Amino acid sequence: MEALKQELKEKIIDVLNLEDIAVEDVNDNDPLFGDGLGLDSIDALELIVMLDKDYGIKLADPKEGKAIFQSIETMAKYISENRTK
Amino acid sequence: MANNYFITDHCIIEKGKVLHNGQEVFAMPEAAFPDFAKQAYKHLNTDYAKFFKMDNLSKLSFLAADILLKEYIADGSNNTALLFANSSSSLDTDVKYNDSIADKDDYFPSPAVFVYTLPNICMGEISIKHKLYTENSFFIFEAFNPEFFAAYAQALLDTAKADRVLCGWVDFLKDDYKAFMYLVSKEQGTAHTKENIQTLYNN
User: Fold this and answer.
1) ipTM value for the complex
2) Which residue of B has its CA nearest to A46?
3) How far apart are CA A76 and CA A6, in angstroms?
4) Domain count of chain A?
5) Smallest Cα distance from B81 to chain A, Å
6) Of A17, A49, A53, the CB nearest to B53
7) Which of A9, A34, A77, B52 qualifies as a cystine partner to A17, CB 3.0-4.6 A?
8) Where are the domains of chain B?
9) Domain B6-202 class?
10) Over its length of 85 residues, how does chain A's per-residue pLDDT go in tens digits?
């Protein structure tokens, strides 16, 4: 799980072009949206694409994203339980 | 075309150089655009984290606009209309997006790329940063068209749609790019004529 969290932090910074943020700056329970990393709605769509592309997870209901993308911790838990690749 | 308006500031970004009113303020002539833009952003204290999410056309437009608008917006004068044009539309990003969906076995369209497949998005980025709730229009021409810019900017000012107009030719395709922007208002400066606009563009 720790390796997956580290991987997610690296991927999110890279995919979402978070130029001013380092992996060390992202805590496992920091909110990804709002006051945390400050991600926006387009970033949310990009994360849905990343789940599909890298972990073989298709979100049938985009509303699920709100709970899944709360933090690195919640993302890692969901991915580890649902990944197909 | 005689009028009571003046060009108060202008900026050119091309070939790895940033010129403000004819003075070089940053240069990295050997660098590819992404690296040049990143370093120019830092050097010019642009301070807008979402800059790094933008496509090339928006980065180019945003940098040039920020140089010209900083002092006016700080002044509280934000009734500034945006009048932009280019010849390549958003083709630079359109091609990238098309490449990302060309392989049906590896089909993952990127929402973050897709949102930039319209040229006028760059004006939205500028308006958000500088809190502009003003007129904005983006036109496509085969080549730079000073007569159109002069007439349209004058119409915006004559009809009191804006106190100031930020005019911009912003074109980006592959490794070729140019931003030429200038501000027009009643404040004293260079006479607002198509000849002067063309001369500043050529410099």
Assistant:
1) 0.83
2) B111
3) 9
4) 1
5) 26
6) A17
7) B52
8) 6-202
9) alpha beta
10) 899 999 999 999 999 989 888 999 999 999 999 877 888 889 999 999 999 999 999 988 878 888 999 999 999 999 999 999 8
